[in-house]
Amino acid sequence: MQLRWKLKQADQLKVNALQQSLKVHPVLCQMLVQRGIETFEEAKKFFRPELSDLHDPFLMKDMEKAVNRIMEAISRNEKILIYGDYDVDGTTAVATVYQFLTEFYPNIEYYIPHRYIEGYGISFKGIDYAAENNFTLIIALDCGIKSNDKVDYANERKIDFIICDHHTPGDDIPKAIAVLDPKRSDCRYPYKELSGCGIGFKLIQAFAQQNGMPPENCYRYLDLVCVSIGADIVPITGENRILAFYGLKKVNENPLPGLKKLMEVSGKLGQMDITNVVFILAPRINAAGRMDDAKHAVRLLIADDIDFDPEQKAEQLNKFNTDRKDLDKSITIHALEMIAGDETLINRKSTVVFHPEWHKGVIGIVASRLTETYYRPTIVLTESDGKVTGSARSVKNFDLYEAIYECRDLLIQFGGHKYAAGLTLRPENVDAFRDKFDEVVSARITDEQLIPELEIDAEIELEDINSKFYSIIQQMAPYGPENMKPVFVTRNVKDNGWSKIVKEEHIKFSVKKKNSPVVDGIGFRLAEKFNLVKSGAFDIAYQIDENEWQGNVRLQMLVKDIADPQK
């Protein structure tokens, strides 16, 4: 797929000022300014995050009400139900809050709705379960901000709700005892991009603070918070950066028993980074809810080495993940064949595909796969219990949620973010929805947005690639949205004669410029551009990485794209 290169800009006066105080390579200062870091003090907090810089949880709207209601429930020996969504964010949130509270209060259970029986979020069945088992307080995590009817139903049954959510609210806030969501228009909490598990963490942080508990009682769950941040693709900025930094430290030094076993069964050895969290831990946790029941994931995450066998549960999640991969691969192939065989679908500016027998648990992954092939807003639909449900994924800078909102008259329900959403509709409305969604997308999306963009942080020379430069780049981690691993461009490089195609579709690079050192690299799936490598000078876009071979470690380029310097 053709990429559109975009070189990021930065205010040169701010770059110069920062370089004067930091005394490091000006390109590093340029990248910091691009990330909103303009002073020595801001740079210090960026490179040396401190848990003491976490915001006061009581700045969040309704936090005092939430803590007081939990304390009241404990004093009255009420039964508390911890309720969470079935994805990684929801299950890690449940595991965090459940473990924290059960340390000193036993009258607690957790509840995860079944993806295929109850669907997303708070369910009437879950509330009925609470009523039948005498629960009088439900703490909902990573869901509930639009569950007005469910909360009203719970109120009728004398069950109180505390909602901890991070999704965009609707016009009316549910009538719960407390609604914790920084995205509320009336919430003055300084940081708006916490994960669902992050909101749960702020709740236990507030409870600990109110009751004079040491903060370490909360910090022991930072590995779960880190997993949620990586899996839910929230920005790794501000408070999320602090949580991810220390959470990753705990993942590597002292993870909870369940996470440790999950790493072991995955075959992952050595240090974990956010990429490993996203591609190794998160899919295995997610697989429980996709393939069977997400309670399996929670049981693993709260497992104790003494009284539970987390290894057995980790093996089970690993098998779920293997089955999931087989399933999403076969459905993706089917969906691509469906698009290729339909000229109307090929030529549209959106993709909406439907098959009643596709597995509901993997359609979100399939939507992501289709977006990689046909770079445009994509919705994959399947049928379940007489209703059509779908998962949607977007492309950069296109608000998918708003586009789906414009089609709301054809939907039973919907929810989500700018880049990912879920929806439910009646089977007879699928064709009308497909047409209207494409009409909305076509009216709003630009041709430029339909070409994938490669953001480049800075232009450097080959001699800039050295261990000192690389070590500072590494300190910019953990990487993620709004703090992605830097991509550089070097202009007019030439093959030194040793570049070659490997395994038919990749290029092993060996390049130089006049008087520069030779730098090696690897470019995956770039073989079709090999003629450009051999034709003379070319521009090369890449990340800097380490390559270890036979005990020797050296820097190399992880090449993202190459281009004709004339273009």
Q: Would you write up a description of this structure?
A:
The protein folds into three domains: 4-48 and 453-563, OB fold (Dihydrolipoamide Acetyltransferase, E2P) (Beta Barrel), CATH 2.40.50.460; 57-319, inorganic pyrophosphatase (n-terminal core), CATH 3.90.1640.30; 341-450, Diaminopimelate Epimerase, Chain A, domain 1 (Roll). Helix 13 (274-291) crosses helix 15 (310-340) and helix 15 (310-340) crosses helix 17. With 567 residues, the chain is an alpha/beta fold. The model has no long low-confidence stretch (mean pLDDT 93). The radius of gyration is 25 Å and the shape is globular. The chain starts with a strand and ends with a strand. Strand 8 (378-384) and strand 9 form a beta hairpin. Strands 3-2-4-5-6 form a five-stranded parallel β-sheet, sandwiched between helices. The chain has helices spanning 12-22, 26-34, 40-47, 63-75, 88-102, 124-132, 148-156, 196-210, 216-219, 222-231, 238-253, 257-266, 274-291, 295-301, 310-340, 343-347, 363-373, 400-405, 430-444, 467-474, 530-534, and strands at 4-7, 79-84, 108-111, 135-141, 160-164, 178-180, 351-354, 378-384, 387-393, 413-416, 420-425, 453-456, 458-459, 488-495, 500-502, 506-512, 519-523, 538-549, 552-563.
